[in-house]
């Protein structure tokens, strides 16, 4: 059997996902961009039912737009991160801090050999009407 990419551990991917969600929450554009450049490969692809972007710059712009649309809301992990080989999956919520999330999603991230995110495949489990 041949494997590609790092063999992930729960601790590594839990920290990675926490950092990734922190990037989505970062209000300072320079901080957000620095986090994304550290966490993601330059050609990272993010795709979900509402977006399909490639590159750190495009992902940064997408996050900025989401922050404008959902001002004051924060991304938080929902449940544990599950990982094997170069893939991890995790659920997240978007809502007021300490309250029930208004949006819930499920992402699958693919990592390169250096542990950087090369792709995120997102699914939206709960989205409010009009969002």
Structure description:
The chain is of the alpha+beta class and 131 residues long. It has one domain: Nuclear Transport Factor 2, Chain: A. Strands 2-1-6-5-4-3 form a 6-stranded mixed beta sheet.
Distance between the termini: 44 Å
Radius of gyration: 14 Å
Q: Indicate the overall shape.
A: globular
Global mean pLDDT: 92
What name does CATH use for the topology? Nuclear Transport Factor 2, Chain: A
- The CATH architecture category equals Roll
Strand order of the largest sheet: 2-1-6-5-4-3
Helix content: 25-40%
Q: Supply the CATH class.
A: Alpha Beta
Structural class: alpha+beta
Strand content: 35-45%
Give the number of domains: 1
The helix tally amounts to 3
Biggest sheet features? 6 strands, mixed
The helix-strand sequence is: HHEEHEEEE
Low-confidence stretches: none
Number of strands: 6
